[in-house]
Amino acid sequence: MNLKKGYLFFMILFMVFFSIVTPIFAQFDQTDFGSRINIRSSPEIPGAYTEATINLSTVSYDLSRANIQWIVNNKEVESGFGKSFVSIKTGGAGVETVVSAIITFGSTSTTKRLIIRPSEVKLLWQAIDSYIPPFYKGKALPSSEGLLKFVAIPNLKDQNGKSLKEKDFTFAWKKNYDPDQESSGYGKNSFVVKNNYMNDNENIEVTATSVVGGYIAKKTISVPIYSPIIIFYENRPLFGTNYDVAIPNDFIMNNTETSIVAEPYFFSPNYLENEDLVFGWRMNGNAVQSQKKNKLVIRNDSQNGSVKINLYVENVAKLFQSLSKTLTIKLP
């Protein structure tokens, strides 16, 4: 019985000893430990003039026991035991920042090096089938199942100060975090997507990688999806449509005749003559025909009271592009 207890006690001591000693030997006796240490930047692709953190990581060694010296562009900025990260600020687009970490365990050292080449890419978007009236100064906004076009514009100069063009890059596009291989590739700096009616936003990401030089830039944008709106304007025979002032819901008609122009903002397609865009006018509950689909003529035949106008607009090719609006016209 005592022999068994002694054997068990010996085995426990043996396991404890090697669980402590083995990592120490691994840290100081292996000359290839540098290959097991990784150096990375956070964010992974920093932009110009931004803060970045350079980290060392490993699953094989205890970096808290290592003396680490950080050198940025040939200048020491940090040093000490366990200094496994350093914060830096990047330069302008195309300006390289060289970060080196000298890791020392006892008498054994290795150097990890990272070159940061900050790059920038602008990501512009346009709702290409969203309707807006003439002379509208605002931006056309995307609605459900509408088409959006994104254009990536790299802003980068190489080491010789030459600006790189779209043809110098390959572009990798993602829609709602899913890669789109067909739209990605050499020189493909534009991307057209159709909104899914279930999405309230379209999240687009592009990564631009230079063909030579190893420059990489990434940009992400989230575009909200809007609901169409109908706005009424007054059209007078001698003055045309007054787009400066929208007609309020209760409108006083001061002339014997006027025309109501309806503008279906952000419906698609982007031109009124398309057959998919249907207008239905009603006056006091009765369907009426108009000479032009978005224009209704109102005449005051010496009547008092009011007239209730209702307009229903629908894109019959879309599931959720329909809207109704009512206008009350007071006759003096």
CATH level-4 homologous superfamily of the largest domain: Immunoglobulins
Largest sheet geometry: 5 strands, antiparallel
Tell me the span between the first and last alpha carbons. Answer: 116 Å
**Pattern of helices and strands:** HEEEEEEEEEEEEEEEEEEEEEEEE
Individual helix count: 1
How helix-rich are the residues, as a percent range?
Answer: under 10%
Mean pLDDT over all positions:
86
Number of domains: 3
What does the secondary structure layout of this molecule look like, with pairings?
Elements: H1 2-29, E1 38-42, E2 51-57, E3 67-72, E4 75-81, E5 85-89, E6 97-105, E7 108-116, E8 120-127, E9 147-155, E10 169-175, E11 178-179, E12 185-186, E13 190-194, E14 201-210, E15 216-224, E16 229-236, E17 240-241, E18 250-252, E19 257-265, E20 277-283, E21 286-288, E22 295-299, E23 305-315, E24 322-331
Parallel strand pairs: 18-24
Antiparallel strand pairs: 1-2, 2-5, 3-4, 3-6, 6-7, 8-9, 9-13, 10-11, 10-12, 10-14, 14-15, 16-17, 16-19, 19-22, 20-21, 20-23, 23-24
Can you give a write-up of this model?
Strands 10, 11, 12, 14 and 15 form a five-stranded antiparallel beta sheet that branches. Strands 18-24-23-20-21 form a five-stranded mixed beta sheet, with no helix packed on it. A hairpin with a 6-residue loop joins strand 23 and strand 24 (322-331). With 332 residues, the chain is mainly beta. The model is unreliable at 16-30 (pLDDT under 50). It has one helix spanning 2-29, and strands at residues 38-42, 51-57, 67-72, 75-81, 85-89, 97-105, 108-116, 120-127, 147-155, 169-175, 178-179, 185-186, 190-194, 201-210, 216-224, 229-236, 240-241, 250-252, 257-265, 277-283, 286-288, 295-299, 305-315, 322-331.
